[in-house]
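Human: If only I could read backbone structure tokens as easily as an amino acid sequence. Underneath my words sits a plain record pairing an amino acid chain with its backbone structure tokens. Take your time, and here it is.
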Amino acid sequence: MDGRPLAFHLTEGQASDSPQFEVLLDLGPDITPRAAVGDKGYDAKANRSAARERSICPVIPFKSSAKNRPAFFPKALYRARARIEQLVGKLKRFKRIALRCEKTAQNYGSIVALALGFILVKSVHTA
């Protein structure tokens, strides 16, 4: 959606991204995405099959150590991942988020939600 946030899921700092993939597929409003774009941290058979069960095309590059790598990879779709990284960059411009000033998950999640709200408001007024 043009790099605007739909939803977020807060996890522990040391938690891996891969187990959270199914949670991310179910977040957000009642829309069905056509593709799920992720980095190599999400490369797992379980993640790919979870996306396909929901009729979502997984756009996740294979790790270099993967044994069965297909010849085709949708690079044009993967370029859309830059929007995600740009949104994270905008989010880290907020000092309280970048420095992780909040000690509890509830307070940190509230600050992230507030910052994402500011980002949404700004994107609406500049469009």
Q: What stands out?
A: Residues 105-126 form the longest helix (22 residues).
